């Protein structure tokens, strides 16, 4: 009985801390991306996503070289083991960046709540997990509130709505498939993160160049602005942290828990958005200080 009891306490602590860690990373990353894409007018969300993938690759590779973490070396079976995670990974990244720049922050967070029922549905289909009627009813209550809020949006933006809904689908599918594939006997959580980024950074870069997105980024007039560069690099680092936090939260809890934690952040996001609308000259640092 003692070994079993010894395992329960760390498990409960891990569940709580992983959920809090995921919530904090997601909140700060949305704030930074919103500042970069709207306040500074950075024209290239795809390049921002590439920077976040590059940060993930570098951090995990250096950690592996220094034997801080472990994940298997590359072999020809890894792409098969990962599929379709790389596609979901880049879709989640890019649709999230595009949707953040298209809608107001409060409306973005409201529509992101549709991730919760999608996650519940995919967990049932893919993982064979079943939830009680109380949980299902709670989920659909959240969705009903989101529908009512979206119906009162005076600044209707169809393109923004499409990107957010795509982001909901990619987020739900990414969480469920990540839970399925991060078996420690296979790739593990670090291997999933590393090889996802490796497989998708080059195709994403090619898309960025072919669409003119990369050229717009290189011609951007704020690259000599030290504050912009700091926030850009911080966004890249937080992009890695968010991917890691998402994997941790899904590992210790469930994809549905991860989706619910994401919805809880709406209170902080709405408050910060209200502050920023009252005075657009507020720097991001001041907004973060008021959390």
Rg calc: 19 Å
Strand content: under 5%
**Count of alpha and pi helical runs:** 14
What pattern of helices and strands is seen along the backbone?
HHHHHHHHHHHHHH
Based on the structure, what is the oligomeric state of the protein chains? Answer: single chain
- The general outline is globular
Find the structural class using helix and strand composition.
mainly alpha
Measured as a percent range, the helix fraction is over 70%
**What low-confidence regions span 5 or more consecutive residues with pLDDT below 50?**
1-10, 277-291
Mean pLDDT: 79
List how many beta strands DSSP finds.
0
The largest sheet, given as strand count, sense and whether it forms a barrel, is: none
- The N- and C-terminal alpha carbons lie at a distance of 43 Å
Describe this structure in words.
With 291 residues, the protein is mainly alpha-helical. 79% of the residues lie in helices and 0% in strands. The chain has helices at 2-39, 45-65, 78-82, 85-102, 105-111, 115-127, 133-151, 158-181, 188-210, 213-218, 226-252, 255-264, 266-278, 284-289. The protein starts with a helix and ends with a helix.
């Amino acid at each position: 009985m003692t070994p079993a009891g010894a395992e329960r306490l760390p498990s409960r602590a891990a569940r709580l801390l992983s959920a809090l860690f995921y919530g904090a990373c997601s909140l700060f990353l949305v704030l930074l991306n919103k500042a970069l894409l709207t306040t500074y007018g950075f024209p290239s969300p795809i390049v921002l996503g590439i920077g976040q993938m590059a940060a993930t690759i570098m951090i995990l590779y250096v950690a592996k070289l220094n034997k801080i973490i472990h994940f298997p070396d590359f072999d020809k079976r890894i792409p098969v083991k990962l599929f379709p995670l790389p596609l979901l990974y880049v879709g989640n990244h890019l649709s999230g960046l595009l949707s953040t720049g298209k809608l107001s922050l409060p409306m973005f967070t409201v529509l992101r709540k549709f991730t919760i029922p999608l996650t519940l549905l995919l967990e049932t289909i893919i993982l064979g997990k079943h939830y009680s009627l109380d949980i299902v009813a709670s989920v659909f209550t959240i969705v009903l509130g989101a529908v009512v809020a979206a119906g009162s949006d005076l600044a209707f933006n169809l393109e923004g709505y499409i990107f957010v809904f795509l982001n909901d689908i990619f987020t739900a599918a990414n969480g469920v498939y990540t839970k399925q594939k991060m078996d420690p006997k296979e790739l593990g959580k670090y291997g999933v993160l590393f090889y996802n980024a490796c497989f998708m950074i080059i195709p994403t870069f090619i898309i960025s160049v072919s669409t003119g997105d990369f050229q717009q980024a290189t011609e951007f007039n704020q690259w000599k602005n030290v504050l912009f560069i700091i926030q850009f690099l911080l966004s890249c680092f937080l992009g890695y942290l968010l991917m890691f936090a998402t994997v941790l939260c899904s590992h210790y809890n469930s994809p549905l828990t991860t989706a619910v934690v994401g919805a809880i952040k709406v209170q902080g996001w709405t408050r910060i958005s209200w502050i920023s609308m009252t005075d657009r000259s507020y720097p991001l640092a001041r907004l973060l200080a008021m959390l």
